[in-house]
């Protein structure tokens, strides 16, 4: 059996397309990052691919850099799913266990399947399902009832749905870039997998990831993604605010936003930063203080909207591990302090990648964290598949192999989640 596998994540963001190539070790909980590539996104708005031809060129560009760095050829990737169309709903799955027997993995799977039997409006599909709470008879709020005896099993499911057309356009962009989508995974989930510890995800933590065109809001509890929501606001709107207040171009707005990050600039509120006004050659000047006010208003709005969505769903009260801020815009100076103030003094910190052996220096930029998480998920799914196969009896394995050979029961894999059984990694070292 192979001891490691090449895993690839592609995150097509509103402003940046990022590809990460990594090596996942089947006997270790770590991955080595081998290559990272980034390209400015085109044809993507607020996390949704609008023009698959333009998006595919960005995927190719990002991937070619990552491939060259890792010295590999890539054919398949796990790809992120983002955008405001994604919505979380809570459903309850129920299952009767005859004879008061111990709960098995099959019972957990059945209760999950039962809870997913929902009717969706045309054009919408289930993209992610996680069981975040179980009840067994009178025992409530269980992380996992596996092995406990009982007769009435209930699972509280977080079902994330999305517009099928949005996923279809990403698939089209990937096809045009000559890549197969191995699986999809929510961008917020991938960032959480990359940057939150197992303990944080077990005990309860909120994650607010401010990207370029969107803000992903996620809550984890009992190791599951228990809430997910997306705001159509990110760093781009902050640059636009600067541009419209100072009657300049979006490019100048972005430049002023990044210039504000320089600690020497921020140290003197009355200092002036010069900029080009509109398309003219005329120069203007803005004080650091005014720039801070323009940016601060929008940053507070984004953080407050995220807070309100988390609060309504009871996520903040269920976040003993506090708030973690991620995404490219988390580099905005003073963000942690502003969030702490707006979230009632909640412990707040910036996201940092975890579970990395070699190559940590390649994923320091928060814009890489979603793609990094996709590679970690890919490795975890492979390990889960292998341990499932190993725990199967010989007859079961033979039957699956025969079924696979003749195509019985083959159907489309769910949009996100573990790799389809028997799926072979297609990526290879070049
Ligand atoms: N040093 C910095 N200070 C402030 N903002 C920054 C800094 N560096 C990058 N950004 C902002 O981060 C944003 C890009 O972040 P990211 O790459 O996470 O977004 P994305 O994945 O392209 O978009 P989305 O996830 O919303 O679809 C841009 O708006 C950019 O201006
Ligand atoms: Mg993003």
Question: What would a concise description of this structure say?
Answer:
35% of the residues lie in helices and 29% in strands. The chain is built from 12 helices and 18 strands. The radius of gyration is 23 Å and the shape is globular.
Protein model, in words:
- It is built from 12 helices and 18 strands.
- It is of the alpha+beta class.
- Among the domains are: 87-164, 2-Layer Sandwich (Dna Ligase, domain 1); 235-297, Nucleotidyltransferase, domain 5.
- Helix 4 (187-195) packs across helix 11 and helix 6 (235-245) runs antiparallel to helix 9.
- The longest helix has 25 residues, at 288-312.
- Mean pLDDT is 91; it is low at 408-415 and 417-426.
- The chain binds adenosine-5'-triphosphate and magnesium ion.
CATH architecture of the domain at 87-164: 2-Layer Sandwich
The total count of strands amounts to 18
Which CATH class of the domain at 87-164? Alpha Beta
Beta-strand residue fraction: 25-35%
- Topology order in helix (H) and strand (E) letters: EEEEEHEEHEEEHEHHEEEHHHEEHEHEHH
Largest sheet: 5 strands, mixed
Distance between the termini: 20 Å
Instruction: Give start-end ranges of low-pLDDT stretches.
Output: 408-415, 417-426
């Amino acid at each position: 059996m192979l001891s490691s596998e090449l895993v690839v994540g592609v995150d097509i963001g509103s402003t940046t397309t990022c590809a990460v190539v990594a090596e996942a070790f089947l006997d270790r909980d770590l991955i080595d990052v081998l290559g990272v590539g980034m390209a400015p996104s085109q044809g993507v708005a607020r996390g949704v691919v609008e023009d698959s031809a333009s998006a595919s060129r960005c995927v190719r560009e990002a991937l070619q850099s990552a491939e060259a760095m890792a010295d590999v050829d890539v054919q398949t990737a796990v790809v992120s799913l983002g955008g405001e169309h994604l919505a979380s709903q809570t459903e309850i799955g129920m299952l009767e266990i005859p004879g008061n027997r111990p709960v098995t993995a099959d019972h957990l799977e059945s209760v999950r399947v039962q809870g997913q039997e929902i009717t969706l409006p045309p054009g919408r599909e289930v993209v992610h399902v996680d069981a975040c709470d179980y009840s067994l008879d009178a025992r409530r709020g269980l992380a996992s009832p596996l092995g406990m005896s009982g007769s009435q099993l209930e699972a509280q499911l977080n079902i994330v749905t999305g517009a099928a057309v949005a996923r279809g356009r990403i698939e089209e962009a990937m096809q045009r870039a000559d890549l197969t989508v191995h699986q999809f995974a929510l961008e917020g989930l991938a960032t959480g997998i990359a940057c939150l510890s197992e303990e944080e995800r077990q005990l309860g933590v909120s994650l607010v990831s401010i990207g370029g065109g969107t803000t992903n809001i996620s809550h984890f509890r009992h190791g599951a993604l228990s809430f997910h929501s997306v705001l159509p606001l990110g760093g781009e709107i902050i640059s636009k605010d600067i541009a419209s207040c100072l009657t300049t171009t979006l490019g100048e707005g972005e430049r002023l936003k990044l210039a504000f990050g320089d600690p020497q600039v921020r140290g003197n509120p009355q200092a002036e930063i010069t900029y080009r006004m509109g398309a003219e050659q005329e120069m203007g000047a803005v004080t650091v203080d005014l720039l801070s006010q323009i940016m601060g208003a929008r940053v507070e709005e984004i953080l407050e909207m995220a807070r309100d969505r988390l609060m309504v769903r009871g996520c903040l009260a269920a976040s003993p591990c506090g708030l973690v801020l991620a995404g490219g815009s988390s580099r905005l100076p003073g963000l942690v302090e502003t969030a702490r103030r707006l979230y009632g003094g909640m412990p707040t910190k910036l996201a940092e990648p975890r579970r990395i052996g070699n190559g940590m220096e390649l994923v320091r930029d928060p814009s890489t964290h979603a793609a990094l998480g996709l590679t970690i998920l890919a490795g975890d799914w492979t390990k889960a598949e292998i341990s499932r196969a190993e725990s199967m009896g010989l007859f079961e394995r033979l039957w699956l192999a025969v079924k696979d050979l003749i195509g019985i029961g083959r159907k489309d894999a769910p949009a996100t989640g573990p790799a389809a059984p028997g799926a072979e990694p297609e990526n290879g070292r070049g």
